[in-house]
């Protein structure tokens, strides 16, 4: 089994929403994305004015995602510095937008909320890598402590909020899956991600290059949970970005070895995990 290239990262997430205008208002005014373009009930959002991080697509027949189905648990927006997390948190608090939680994971500090359609969002900042704590087995400690909000807000500085900084990216994606054994085979043996945190038999976190996690996977919606309906709001697809075509081809070959079905159309390579979550394998540029 070959490990995925250490420079692999998450590219973008594509979400189905019920009302594009409402979602654009939320992602721009509350989260701080810039709108790159809007066409045919679809919008691309960016932090640096050129790199697409989130795609929103309105479907006229969209329905609420049923509970206890696979799909998106949350996607995570990584800001470059702690002060940026403090600034967006202060903005959200001043705006009165409801938060769902705030946690200290030791390797990162995070704030949780949902968009108007219930799509889960994590906003987070990483601690310096040398401070990430490992267990005796060499994996990272999977800890969720209450976030010291007052200490974090002290970092906000007396600056007007200007939205997300240009270096913002999608740090990770966390998914509901149906079967952990099949999930391990796909993400570890197929894609080549490394297991970095395990929580019993119900949660697995995997990464490239020693990161604390690029993808979180859990069976919290129930072992054997079904896929949501085709027209449910939530995750349409997310992308994994590899450094070049050679590295992508190696991943494709390894996925084919475990029996995964690859769909190739022009420059886009798509594969679906055993729980029905769709991934795109892309290359830089």
Automatic annotation (TrEMBL):
CDD domains xrefs: VOC_BsCatE_like_C, VOC_BsCatE_like_N
PROSITE patterns reported for this sequence: VOC
Entry-linked SUPFAM superfamilies: Glyoxalase/Bleomycin resistance protein/Dihydroxybiphenyl dioxygenase
Pfam families: Glyoxalase
Residue span, VOC domain: 9-126, 169-284
Catalytic activity, EC: 1.13.11.2
A GO molecular-function annotation: catechol 2,3-dioxygenase activity
Keywords from the named record: Dioxygenase, Oxidoreductase
Top-rank lineage group of the source organism: Bacteria
Entry-linked InterPro entries: Glyas_Bleomycin-R_OHBP_Dase (IPR029068), Glyas_Fos-R_dOase_dom (IPR004360), VOC_core (IPR037523)
Enzyme superclass (EC): oxidoreductase
Protein name in the entry: Catechol 2,3-dioxygenase
